[in-house]
């Protein structure tokens, strides 16, 4: 064992991508194991590695962690990305939960029936521009600082840049009415660890395609 965190999931974004983002932003190298068959997934369950019979699975610091939120929270705490006190942590958690609601829509979009894709894309645009992005635009404008909480880089910033880029892939003009978020995106994308993660050949996964959707359905079929 190299001592690097070991991530077990499919070779695609899904619920693991936010974990990859957070580790990469913290400058942590990791190893990945990709599930390609239902048999591999069933073996993890049979071997007792999946507490709730679900992935992501992250092996870190001698633990076999499941549940995305718990994994992210542990990584954020370990690498000092979870605020300096309880009040900052509460703010970060609130922002992260809001972003997670938007990301859930992005996550499920590739699995939309063909006749629902346009409607679901409109829903993503509506929620992003009318519910979620205005919150962060206002926060950044009001306190005039570079980051969302305590003028210090945190888990919330990582989640937000991931969400911005994910929405922009589908709606390229989505930030047109959000100058603070445009500046935030530029600044965050140029942070050395994030800039490295955005380069070709990094562990960042491409947008889900039909092959990824088929693999998900195959691996997790009941």
Automatic annotation (TrEMBL):
UniProt keyword list: Transferase
GO function term, MF aspect, one: glutathione transferase activity
Enzyme Commission identifier(s): 2.5.1.18
One of the Pfam families matching this protein, by short name: GST_C_3
Annotated GO biological process: glutathione metabolic process
Cross-referenced InterPro entries: Glutathione-S-Trfase_C-like, Glutathione-S-Trfase_C_sf, Glutathione_S-Trfase, Glutathione_S-Trfase_N, GST_alpha, GST_C, GST_superfamily, Thioredoxin-like_sf
Domain GST N-terminal residue range list: 3-83
Coiled-coil positions: none
Class of enzymatic activity (EC top level): transferase
Protein family according to the UniProt entry: Belongs to the GST superfamily. Alpha family.
Protein's recorded name: glutathione transferase
Organism from which the protein derives: Grallaria varia
